[in-house]
Every structure is written in structure tokens, then in C-alpha cells.
Task: inverse folding
């Protein structure tokens, strides 16, 4: 703790009457740890920390997009091998350690772990190496995602601009890393990664979702993509879109069982801002266009355009108070965009 | 400032013609501080800084959830007393100092302060100790909030996952800390805390709101809960929900007077994504369910389910251009979920 | 990399069978950089980094609002000149360097650059000095923005509270800085600045937009203001408002050409939460009020109030399952607020 520069800073530390009050507070807090389980973590296998996962995610992104994500690297053909080697070694060490912690914790706390003892260690090594092996194919998909952003946004002036500033690319990259770890059976870390990026971008993609290539989210704030969503290639969605579940009762006896609760979006679909598509049996057919604010809870065939026939809107002259018009807001526009 | 590694870095510092232009800019900026009041803070009582409040909030969270929030602590029964003692001492010093600054600043700038001179110092100590005393009871409520998240989200696999990654828990924890300080009459700091977390999570809860136990916000981005909102126990809300005010004129003569402008939500209510509930006299009765996108400005009795009868939606075959259907989107679904 | 404190940390580094697997992964990643262009940046002119732009933006904000943004400065009439001089010098160095990098990169990568060789250097100096020269006038506009926030929000207790915690002020300040740089023809950096702040606040304002004085965004999460939007003085908007484009095809041959795609909002307009206003020819006349959730794609005359005549909502008694009411949700309220 830095030295207080406050005039009054020293005063309260010298006051003797504070000491017993502080002692009582400390004791009561320590006791509350004994009484209330579940929201503290004292003793027992260690857990991954949010700060460490954040740093790790940043390193992986810098390996995916060298020269863009991290500052001050002067990468060239001379030093690129050293850069990659150093990064891979660092990512391997951190990821293997965090994955082992997660697996061990799950093993000791969960009734449905079927890994034999000692396997956590070997699995962690395999997962960490597996992610490094997957980097080239992840780069191929993300290359297509970046180009989809450039093609899909009239405001994008260059790929460079997309790489340097678009939240969609960061969110989708983190999702694809987290999804890889999720499929490998790693607990905790995938969701921590997507929630870190949810915090940065306002885009909430569950690591369990399956998302095709050339995926672009414009603006993105408020987007929610649920755990069992399936999305084909070349899909574009806008801010505030929810791909969600109809309300269901959770089976608290078997929280690990995953039912299909979220929709399937086929390839080449565009979903405009604020649309809500719900339900595990809902399929939006190939090439369809879902207009802004549409609410959809059933399937539609390929190449269907759905627009909301907006409710009547009332236009009132504020000086006279007279209603001057009452109309469907769509009546003057056939379009459904909301970029 | 770090040494520039730029080839051209040195060049402009040597150019003599830049110096008078820079001097003129500096002088004009300094003068503008004399002319425009209110948006700078030179001389006068010091203010809490956002960075310091952010660090303080993080320390308080690490005391609420030891082993989860902060990294690298290997907590066990041996060292837990030292951890709690060190944290309490550190939080006390920081909080007392920031509260004293806030109170002093308000006293010297506000016409409606009725504290006698010198009381700021004693009040700051009492507030800081009071928060430490309140930690055990805050932990009890947050324990219930965490379990409400686990029970309420089909995607939650364990309490550990909730503790490590759910934005709702961070937002609600920060709100409960801020609300405690708000009730103690601390200016500035409560709102700074909730806005820091608004930035992290997209969840905007005013520290003046009153929120019962077992509260869960799923996804959360875009949620707004206004200053005079009252929420009972066991309430669940989803992303994009606004609990807001009907438009009113502000009384600029008495900005400190708080009128009830925001709704009351009774216990066991669920409010799905995008719903808007407005007005200080609006009461949503116990056990009610508010469907996605509902717009409500009047009270409803207990155990009422409100769903929006969605506007007609037009389904058009994109190849033929023919309209194939026009229907209420709700007609195939009785449900109102949007998880 | 810090020393591992993990029991198992040393184990995997000693295992000889890992080395060839790691080497293979490193080689494959390096090769993928040769194959996939565009999403990495090795060799060639350097680019601004997000971290550096973030630090620079913070310094500029501390010059705009001395004593509020940065911590631990004890500013007074004695030291204020030194503070301003040091900040100006630091901002000048950083900004000139970043602008030069951006200009050079664009020159070498774009077919439509018409700057003669060597001009990047001089332009960077002029832009950096130009921003410092513009600080006093930026402060005048932001002074009005701060007061608009105080007057416009019934929850705001003082200007100090606005200065210390309101996301609107941060977002609008960053936008005004970015807009200055955008008009000076600086590539990349303006959008990086607004996207950094989009991440912090959930407010997404394109640096190309033109926004008048006394502008206030309440709550803000989910707001999108597109590239060619024009906004007059004294406009207030709420969370989730989109000022966007109708869907158009991008001209990939000429990505630098900017068409007016987004609406014009005349002075003294209020736009409530969740409203969507689209299209480059859409003009919202002076003094109009746009209610929550309105969807507007055509112009309206001055002093018009538009409210959505909400769809019928169904109120059902959950115990009997009987429908108890079916009504327009607006029928009991003439108002359109959503604060």
C-alpha cells in the first residue's frame, strides 16, 4: 500500500479505539467463511483466475493476428520464428497449467467425472498442444471472418481497419478459441473466455454454440447467442439480436445434460438489429432475411424474408396537439435494414 | 515517457519552429481553464478518482469471494486470518480516505449540507468500519444471488462456473456495496462504483434502487434499473430489460429531492428480454411473468402473465416476391421466454 | 514469464517427447503466416496499437478535464502550467508518431492515396498541433454536453457526479476527439478511439458522424450512431437507440466513397429508449419527440410527437389460465418516456 498523502491519513491509524472494532469485523468475516459454502474458495484444488485467463487469451490472439493485437512488436522475416516459438512456449505453459487446475477441480467437486486419477495431467498437456496445432486452421476461419466484416459493412474502409478496431473480430476469435476448449471437455475456462469478451464487446456468445465460417456481427452490443445455437456459413447479424431459448425448467439433478434449446440458422442468412429467434426446433432456412425487431419462434423455409408489420404509429402535432397521421411505419419502406 | 524507437521520432523535437506553436497551445489551454468552470477541478477539496475506486471495489469483492476474484492467493486455514486482516486494513484505509474526500467536497460545494464542520472525518471512519461490519450479511445475500443464478440458468453447469464467470454476480455485488454506501449518505462513490461495473457488464443499476435477495440477471447487456426501483426477493430478469421512468421535468432548484419515478416489482416475478416497465406508480404483482418486449406503464395484479400479441409479420418468398403468410408471430407459441 | 508455483509445473517442461510436437506446431503456425495474408502484419510500415491509442486517449481526456480523469494530481494555480505543458508535450509526441504510422501505412497499402512522398511526416505534425490548438474549443462544447447531462437526467445530483461517473460524457468526448482526427484525414486512429470507448460504455458512435453541442445520451448501452448521421444542438437520446442505414449494397470497388446512409436529427429532439431511425434521407424535424421503440424510416416535420401504438397485449390470470384483458398498452398512458 502506498504511503498516504492525505492530511488526515495518519490520524485514524493512531486512534486506539479503532483497533477493537477492526478486530471484531475481521473475526466476523472469517467466521462467515465457515458458515457459508460455495461462494469462497479456501483450501482445495486451485482454480483458474480471471486475470490469468485474460492474459492468456491476449497471448493467443497475438499469435493469431501477429502485428495487430500486441503493441511494439517489430515483426519481420528475421525474428518471426523467435516470436512464434516464444509465444507458443508461453501459451503452452499457461494453458496446460490452467487446464490442469480446472480438470482437477471438476474431478474433486463433481459426481459425474469419469476420468481416472492422474489423467488430468496428461489431458492438460494434450489440450494445450492441441490448441497450438489448431492455430493454422483457426487462422483460416478467422481470415474469412475478417473478410466477411469488410465486405459486409459499408463503413469499413479496409481490412486493416477491421483488424485494428472491429469488436466482432475479437468476439468471434475468442469464441472460436473457447469453443475448441469446450469440445475438448475443459471446464470453466471456455465460459470465462467468452464472458471476458462479453465484457469488452457487449457480445455474449456461449462457447457451446456451433458457428460456421465468414461470420460477421455488426456493432454487436446486446447480441446473445445461446449454448446450443447452430449457425451456418456466411451469416451476418446486427446489434441486439437474441438467438435464445423458450423458457424451460432446468433439471437440477443433471445440470451437465445439454438439450437443444436454441435455434438453427442456415447459411447465407442475415438477421437485422433487435430480432429475437427462440427455440431448439426453430430453423431459419438458407438465404433468409430476418428484419429488425422480428420475433420468431417457429421455423421458416429457405429464402424467406420476414419483416415485422410495425404496429400503428401515431404522429401528433405538438403545437396543436392534433393527431396528424396514424399509419404502419413500414408503409413507406419495403426495406428491413438496420445497420 | 519511453524513449522513442521511431526513425523520425527525433526529428520533430529538434525543429525550432514548433516551439512557439506549442507554447501558444499551452497558453490557450491554461486560459480556457479560467474561463470555463465546472468541467475541471483545480484547487479545492480533492475528489475520489475512478482508478482508485476501481481498485477499492476489486479489493472488497476479493473479501466477499475469497479465492475467486483475485489471482494467485493460495488460501488455506493457516493463512486465512492474515488474508482477512490485511484486506480489512487496506479497505478501511482506502475507503475512509475516499469517503472523507467525497464528503468534504460535497460540503464545500453544496448548499444543502447540514453536517457540522469536522464531522466528515468521523463519518468517513464510521462508514468504512460499517462496511466491514456489513460484509458477513452481504455475503449471505450474495450467496443466495449466486444460487439463484445457478438454479435459474439452464446453461450453468455448477456454482463454480457462476462464481468464475457470470456478469450478473459481479454487477449485483457491486450494486449491493454501492447501495450500502448510498444509504450511509456517501456522495459520488456509489454511482462511480455502479458505473464502473456498468462499463464491465453492460448492466446499469442505480445505487439508489432497493433489490431483494436471490436476484439474477441473465446475460444482462442493456439492463437499466432506475434510482427508485423496488424489487422483491426471487426476481429474475433478462438482457435489455428497462425498469425506468416516465418522462418528467427535473426540478433544477432541488436536484437532491428524490421522487419515486421507477416501478415496484414484487417477489417471484420473471421479466423476459427487452421488456420495458415504466413509472413510479407501476406495481408488478407477486409471481407475475412479463414476456419479452412487453411495454408496461400501469400496475398488474399478482400472478398475471403479460405477453405481447406481436404485430403481424409478413413472410415473403424471396424468389417469387410473393407474400406467403401474414400472421401474429405468437400464434404458434404460447410461450414468452427469451433466455 | 513468472516462475511457476505449480507442483506439476516443472514436469512437462522436462518431458522430452513434447519437444518435437511443439516444434511441429511452431513450424505450422509460421507457415500459415506465409499463406494467409491480411490478418497478420509482419514487415512493412508499422501500425498504431490499440494499447497505445488507449493510453493516448486517456491523456487527452485528462487535459480536457484536469483533476477529474486522472488520479492523484493535486492541481493548483502554482503547478497548473507545468501540468498542461507536460501533457501537451507528451500528447504531441505520441499523437504525431501514431498519425505518421497510420498515414504511411495507408499510403503504401491503398490505391487512392494522393499525398506526395514525405508529406506524411509534415501532416502528422500539423494534425498533432492542430488537436492541441482545438482543445479550448473542444472544452467549450464538452462543457455544454456536461451541463446537458446534468439538466437532462433527474437522477443527476450535481455536475461533479456527471464529471466523475457518466458514460455519456466519456463517449461523447472521445467521439469529438476522434471526429476532429477523422476530418483531418487520419486513417485508423479515429475508429480505434471510438471502438475503445464503445467497449467501455456500450455506446457506438462512428467518428464520421456530425453532432451538435449540448448532446446527452442517458444510460447509453446499445446506442448506435452511424457514419453519416447529422445531429443538431440540444438533442437527447436514451439507451438502445439506433440511428442507422437501410440495407444497401457496398461498392467494394470504391470503399472510400461515403454516401449519406444515416438520418438527420434536427435540434431539440428527444429520442426515447430502443427507437430505431433509419435511412440517409430521413429527417426528424426540430423539437420532435420520438417515443420508445418507435421504428421510423421516413421524415417527419418539426414539432411532431411519434409514439408507437403498442400491439395488443394479453393479460392472463396464471391460476385460472383465463385471459383477463386484451388491450393496447398505451391506452392508460399518453406518455412515451423511458428513462
Result:
Amino acid at each position: 500500500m502506498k504511503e498516504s498523502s492525505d492530511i488526515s491519513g495518519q490520524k485514524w491509524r493512531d486512534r486506539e479505539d479503532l483497533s477493537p472494532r477492526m478486530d471484531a469485523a475481521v473475526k466476523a468475516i472469517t467466521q462467515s467463511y465457515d458458515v457459508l459454502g460455495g461462494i469462497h474458495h479456501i483450501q482445495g484444488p486451485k482454480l483458474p483466475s480471471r486475470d490469468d485467463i485474460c492474459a492468456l487469451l491476449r497471448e493467443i490472439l497475438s499469435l493469431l493476428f501477429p502485428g495487430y493485437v500486441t503493441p511494439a512488436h517489430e515483426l519481420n522475416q528475421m525474428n518471426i520464428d523467435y516470436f512464434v516459438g516464444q509465444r507458443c512456449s508461453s501459451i503452452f505453459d499457461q494453458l496446460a497449467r490452467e487446464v490442469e487446475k480446472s480438470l482437477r477441480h471438476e474431478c474433486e467437486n463433481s459426481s459425474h467425472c469419469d476420468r481416472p486419477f492422474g489423467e488430468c495431467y496428461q489431458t492438460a498437456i494434450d489440450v494445450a498442444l492441441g490448441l497450438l496445432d489448431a492455430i493454422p486452421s483457426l487462422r483460416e476461419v478467422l481470415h474469412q471472418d475478417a473478410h466477411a466484416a469488410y465486405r459486409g459493412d459499408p463503413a469499413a474502409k479496409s481490412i486493416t481497419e477491421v483488424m485494428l478496431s472491429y469488436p466482432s473480430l475479437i468476439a468471434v476469435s475468442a469464441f472460436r478459441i473457447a469453443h475448441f476448449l469446450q469440445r475438448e471437455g475443459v471446464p470453466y475456462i471456455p465460459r470465462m473466455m467468452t464472458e471476458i469478451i462479453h465484457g469488452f464487446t457487449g457480445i455474449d456468445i456461449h462457447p457451446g454454440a456451433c458457428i460456421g465460417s465468414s461470420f460477421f456481427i455488426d456493432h454487436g452490443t446486446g447480441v446473445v447467442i445461446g449454448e446450443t445455437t447452430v449457425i451456418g456459413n456466411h451469416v451476418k447479424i446486427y446489434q441486439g439480436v437474441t438467438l435464445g431459448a423458450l423458457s424451460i425448467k432446468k433439471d437440477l439433478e443433471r445440470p451437465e445434460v445439454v438439450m437443444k434449446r436454441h435455434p438453427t440458422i442456415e447459411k447465407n442468412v442475415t438477421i437485422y438489429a433487435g430480432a429475437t429467434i427462440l427455440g431448439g426446433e426453430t430453423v431459419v432456412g438458407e438465404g433468409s432475411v430476418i428484419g429488425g425487431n422480428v420475433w420468431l419462434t417457429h421455423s421458416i423455409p429457405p429464402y424467406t424474408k420476414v419483416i415485422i408489420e410495425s404496429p400503428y404509429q401515431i404522429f401528433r402535432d405538438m403545437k396543436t396537439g392534433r393527431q396528424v397521421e396514424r399509419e404502419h411505419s413500414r408503409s413507406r419502406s419495403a426495406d428491413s435494414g438496420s445497420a
